[in-house]
C-alpha cells in the first residue's frame, strides 16, 4: 500500500457544478485506495490561515452522495487575496505565511488545490514560498484555462444555458419577440458560442468578436422577411457596447460585477427597429445544480489522477484533459496560457456555417 500520507484538499475561486464530485474521487482514491488521511480545508486558503486550521476529515463512506451535489461542501471564496488580505480594521496584510503555517500544523504531505487560473496562480505562489507540495485541478465555468480542453463546471453551465434557449424558443415564437439571453464567461465567450450553437440561437455575441448594432438588426429583419417572427440572441456578459464600454453594475458593498449588456442591447434593438425585446440573465444558475455527466466524469478522472501524482511524488503540476485523456503539466505553464474563443476556430466556423450572426 505504500507510505501513509496526510493530504489536504481545498476549493478556491467561484464555485461550479462538479467540485463535490472531485472531492469524492480524491477521497475514494486517496483514503479508500491508498489508506491516506484526507483533510478538507474549509473556505479555500482561509481555512489554513485560521489558527487552528478549519478542516473537515473526509472519509470514503461519507462521500458517496457528493457525486451529484452542486457547490462545494468545503466552501470557497473568490475574494481576499492572501497576499493583500483585508483585515477587520480596514488594513490589508500579507497572510501567506499564516497559510504555510496552517499546512505545517496539519502535518500535510501534499495539498490538492482546485481553482481557476487566478486562484491557482495564488496557490502556486504560496506553495513556492513555503516549499509546499501542490497538485492542481482546473475548474471554471468560463473554460478559459488554455492548456486543458475541459475545466470542471463548463459543461454543466453550457447545459443550463442551452436549456434556457430551448425554453425561450417557444415563448419567443409565441409572442413574436426578440429574446436576449445574457450568459457568464467573463472575457471568454465559450459558454455563449457553445450554448448558442447547441440551442439554435440566431445571433451570438462574444467578447472576442466586435459587433455592430446594424448587423444584429439586419439579422432580425432578414428573419422577419423570411416569415420568422422571432429571434434568439445570446450575449456574453463581457461583450462591450459598440462604443467599447464594458457594462457593469456595482452593489451596495461597492463590488463591481459584469452584467447588463443584455438590457443595453435590448434597448438599442428596440430603438433601432422597433422590435419587442425581453432579456433573461442566467447569472449564477449557470454555476449551481447537479453536475452534468461529462462534468462528473471529468471530475472523477481529475480527482483520481491528482492523487496518483501525489503517490508518484510529482508536484507543482496540474491535471488536464488533452486528446481524450488526462495528462499533467507544470502549473506555471497551465496558467500562463489563456484561452479565449478562437475567431477562426471550429465553433466560430460552425456558427457562421449555420447562418448564426456573430455581429461582425
Ligand atoms: O469566473 C466564474 C464567474 O462565474 C464568471 O463567469 C462571472 O463573471 C463571475 O464568476 C461572477 O462572480 P461572482 O460569483 O463573484 O458574482
TrEMBL record:
Record-annotated active site: 142 (proton acceptor)
Keywords: ATP-binding, Cytoplasm, Glycolysis, Kinase, Magnesium, Metal-binding, Nucleotide-binding, Transferase
The protein's annotated pathway: Carbohydrate degradation; glycolysis; D-glyceraldehyde 3-phosphate and glycerone phosphate from D-glucose: step 3/4
Transmembrane parts of this sequence: none
Domain of life from the UniProt record: Bacteria
Catalysed reaction, written as an equation: beta-D-fructose 6-phosphate + ATP = beta-D-fructose 1,6-bisphosphate + ADP + H(+)
All residue ranges annotated as the Phosphofructokinase domain in the record: 6-310
Positions with a binding annotation for Mg(2+): 117
Compartments where located: Cytoplasm
Cofactors named for this entry: Mg(2+)
Chain residues that bind substrate: 140-142, 177, 184-186, 237, 278, 284-287
InterPro entries: ATP_PFK, ATP_PFK_prok-type, Phosphofructokinase_CS, Phosphofructokinase_dom, Phosphofructokinase_III, PKF_sf
PANTHER family per UniProt: ATP-DEPENDENT 6-PHOSPHOFRUCTOKINASE 3, PHOSPHOFRUCTOKINASE
Similarity annotation: Belongs to the phosphofructokinase type A (PFKA) family. Mixed-substrate PFK group III subfamily.
Function (record text): Catalyzes the phosphorylation of D-fructose 6-phosphate to fructose 1,6-bisphosphate by ATP, the first committing step of glycolysis.
Assembly: Homodimer or homotetramer.
Name of the molecule in the record: ATP-dependent 6-phosphofructokinase
Organism: Geitlerinema calcuttense NRMC-F 0142
Amino acid at each position: 500500500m505504500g507510505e501513509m500520507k496526510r493530504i489536504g484538499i481545498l476549493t478556491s475561486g467561484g464555485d461550479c457544478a462538479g467540485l463535490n464530485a472531485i472531492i469524492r474521487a480524491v477521497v475514494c482514491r486517496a483514503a479508500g485506495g491508498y489508506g491516506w488521511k484526507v483533510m478538507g480545508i474549509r473556505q479555500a486558503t482561509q481555512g489554513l490561515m485560521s489558527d487552528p486550521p478549519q478542516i473537515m476529515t473526509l472519509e470514503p463512506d461519507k462521500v458517496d452522495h457528493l457525486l451529484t451535489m452542486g457547490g462545494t461542501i468545503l466552501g470557497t471564496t473568490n475574494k481576499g487575496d492572501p497576499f493583500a488580505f483585508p483585515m477587520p480594521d480596514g488594513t490589508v496584510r500579507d497572510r501567506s505565511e499564516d497559510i504555510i503555517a496552517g499546512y505545517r500544523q496539519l502535518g500535510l504531505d501534499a495539498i490538492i488545490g482546485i481553482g481557476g487560473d487566478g486562484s491557482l496562480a495564488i496557490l502556486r505562489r504560496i506553495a513556492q514560498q513555503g516549499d509546499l507540495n501542490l497538485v492542481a485541478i482546473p475548474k471554471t465555468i468560463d473554460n478559459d484555462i488554455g492548456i486543458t480542453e475541459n475545466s470542471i463546471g463548463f459543461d454543466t453551465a453550457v447545459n443550463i444555458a442551452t436549456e434556457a434557449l430551448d425554453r425561450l424558443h417557444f415563448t419567443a415564437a409565441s409572442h413574436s419577440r426578440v429574446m436576449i439571453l445574457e450568459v457568464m464567461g467573463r472575457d471568454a465567450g465559450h459558454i455563449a458560442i457553445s450554448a448558442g450553437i447547441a440551442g439554435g440561437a440566431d445571433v451570438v455575441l462574444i467578447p472576442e468578436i466586435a459587433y455592430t448594432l446594424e448587423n444584429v438588426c439586419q439579422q432580425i429583419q432578414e428573419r422577419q422577411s423570411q416569415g420568422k417572427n422571432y429571434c434568439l440572441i445570446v450575449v456574453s456578459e463581457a461583450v462591450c457596447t459598440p462604443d467599447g464600454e464594458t457594462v457593469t453594475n456595482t452593489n451596495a458593498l461597492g463590488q463591481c460585477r459584469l452584467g447588463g449588456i443584455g438590457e443595453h442591447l435590448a434597448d438599442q434593438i428596440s430603438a433601432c427597429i422597433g422590435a419587442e425585446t425581453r432579456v433573461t440573465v442566467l447569472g449564477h444558475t449557470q454555476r449551481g445544480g447537479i453536475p452534468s455527466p461529462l462534468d462528473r466524469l471529468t471530475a472523477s478522472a481529475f480527482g483520481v489522477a491528482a492523487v496518483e501524482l501525489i503517490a508518484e511524488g510529482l508536484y507543482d503540476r496540474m491535471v488536464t484533459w488533452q486528446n481524450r485523456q488526462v495528462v499533467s503539466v507544470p502549473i506555471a505553464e497551465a496558467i500562463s496560457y489563456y484561452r479565449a474563443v478562437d475567431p477562426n476556430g471550429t465553433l466560430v466556423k460552425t456558427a457562421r456555417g449555420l447562418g448564426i450572426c456573430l455581429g461582425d
